[in-house]
Amino acid sequence: MKDTKVLCFANNKGGSGKTTTCSNIGYGLASLGKRVLMIDGDMQLNLSLSLFPEDQVLAMAGQDRNLYMAMKKQEALTDYIVHTPYENLDLIPSSTLMSGIEYELFTKWQREYILKKALKPVTESGIYDYILIDAPPTLGGWVINILCASHELIIPVEASPWGLFGLANMFEFLEEVKEMTPQLSLLGVVITKVDTRKNYFRQTLETLHQMKEVPVFDHYIRVDSSIEWAQDNSQPVIAYKKSSRSAKEYMELVKEVEQKCR
Fold first, then answer.
1. What is the CATH number that goes with domain 5-257?
2. For the whole model, what pTM was predicted?
C-alpha cells in the first residue's frame, strides 16, 4: 500500500496566489501520473472554480455532498469525492456555508482533529499519492484542523510591498499547531506574482533567506496574463495553456515539490 502525502496551502494574507498554486501543483502532479485528491477548504470556492464552471460549482455547493456537510456530520470524506474532467485528479468541493465552520466546530469533541479523522479512511486506502488542501486566508480553528490533517505546509507569498505582511504571525501559528501535530513540517515558501523588473522580488527573497530554518523553493512564479485567462476559463494554467511561461514555471515547481516529498 502506498503512503499518501497530505499537503496544505495556507497564508493568512489574501492575494498570495495560494489557490492558484494549489490547483496547478495538483494538476501538475496528476499530469505526471500521480493520483491526486484536492480539497477546497475555503468558502470562496476558488479551488473548485479552478476545475469546474461556476454553475457546476454552485450546484455542488448547494447540495449535501460537499466539505461543509461532511464536517458538520463528522463523516468520512470517502463519499464526498467528485471526479474532475482531468485524469488522475479528484476534488472534494467546498460550500459558501464554510463561513460558519468555526461555529460548527466549536462544541465538537477534539475539534482540532475532525478533518484528520474524516480524511483517515481516504489516506489509509492508499488510492491517492497526494492530497492537497486549500486553506482560507485566516488563522482560526478551521485552519488548525487543516494543518493537523496535513504532513507538509506550503506557504505562497506574493512578491509585493505587502507580500510578507503578517508572515511572522503565520510562522508563530505554525509552531503552536506543531505542538498538537508533531508530524507537520514546512515544505517551503514559494514566491508568486514576481515582476523581475521591480525590486520587490529581490527584497522578498532576501528577507526570506534571512529567516532561519525557513525553506524557500528555488522556482518562483512570475506575473503572467495566462493565469487570469485560465481562471476565467475554470482551468489550471498548465491545462489551459501548457506553452505559457507560468505553466512552465509551475511544472518546474511541481517537480521540486515532488523531489522534496520523497
1. 3.40.50.300
2. 0.96
